[in-house]
Amino acid sequence: MTLRFIAKDPNTDGANCPTVWVDEARQELVFQGWKTDADVRADCLKAGPIPETEEVVRLPMRMVAAIREACDVADRSTVR
Question: For a disulfide at 17, which of 12, 38, 51, 68, Cβ 3.0-4.6 Å?
Answer without folding.
Answer: 12
